[in-house]
Amino acid sequence: MASLHSSTRKFITRDEWERKLKEVKIRKEDMNRLIMNFLVTEGYVDAAEKFRLESGTEPDIDLATITDRMAVKMAVQSGNVQDAIEKINDLNPEILDTNPELYFHLQQQKLIELIRMGKIEQALEFAQDELAPRGEENPAFLEEIEKTVALLAFDDVKNSPYGGLLDMSQRMKTASEVNAAILTSQSHEKDPKLPSLLKMLIWAQNQLDEKAVYPRINDLSTAKLEDPAV
After folding, report:
1. Chain center to CA of 64
2. Positive/negative CA dihedral, 155, 156, 159, 164
3. What is the DSSP letter of 159?
4. Measured in whole angstroms, how far is the alpha carbon of residue 211 from the centre of its chain?
């Protein structure tokens, strides 16, 4: 069946495929804007400034704000949640005022950090005073609160059923949510365009696989064309 399916597809040689690719004209300015969008969104302020000078591509956001945004992100990633909250409010108090889910996740992260440091009594008090009322106001938060508080029931917290909350990935998740909220408040896209374009490439190749045999890109990191297996 596989060979029959292959025989019904058009075979495109490498020379023909490369010729077709060269016929596609992409403006350098568009590529530069795509690169700048990635650098700005991901927070590479030094690289963005250098690229601005080298390419003449102006970012659509004040580069100074990237430094402030990255300071907030780093505070969350370091477990300094209160410092992150203060920095967010310095940037724009409306970010947390208008985003109760984000504020809840920051408070949840703060509780996780207290548990990580072994401050059990302080963690219990914080959960009761700060998180419990939010669970009553929003049932969607209740399950997350219960999982976090459940960490207190285990002696070996890291190896408990909810030990994943103490992983660095949890901090990164909260930091990414903060980063997206700040970008949105600055009327900037919260996600860079480049990863979306790469996903579109994968989707397009998968669609084309049904109709043709052609040199495809299997490794996105190198973008090297690989001849199909005949």
Report:
1. 21
2. positive
3. G
4. 34
The continuous run of DSSP H or E covering 95 comes out as helix 94-97
Pull the structure tokens for residue 81.
């949640």
Q: What is the pTM of this model?
A: 0.75
pLDDT tens track for 191-220: 888 888 889 999 999 999 999 999 999 888
CA dihedral sign of residues 194, 184, 172, 134:
negative
CA distance to 4, 36, 45, 164, 214, per residue, from 60 (Å): 52, 9, 13, 37, 38
Q: 183 vs 31, 61, 169, CA distance in Å?
A: 22, 10, 21
Gap between the Cα atoms of 131 and 126, Å rounded = 7
Task: Tell me the backbone φ, ψ of residue 216, rounded to 5 degrees.
Answer: -120, 165
What type of residue is 6? S
Q: Among 74, 66, 65, 40, which Cα is nearest to 175's?
A: 74
| Joined tokens for residue 14 | 């490498």
Query: CA 101, CA 134: separation in Å to the nearest integer?
Result: 10
Strand partners, 217: 225
Q: What angle do CA 174, 180, 186 make, to 5 degrees?
A: 140
For residues 106 and 148, the answer to whether their CB atoms sit within 8 Å is no
In this structure, which amino acid lies at residue 93? Answer: P
Q: Is residue 197 within a helix (H) or strand (E), and if so which, with residue range?
A: helix 193-208
Identify the pLDDT of residue 1: 44
Q: In this structure, are residues 48 and 59 in contact, taking their beta carbons and an 8 Å threshold?
A: yes
Structure-token pair, residue 200: 């579109």
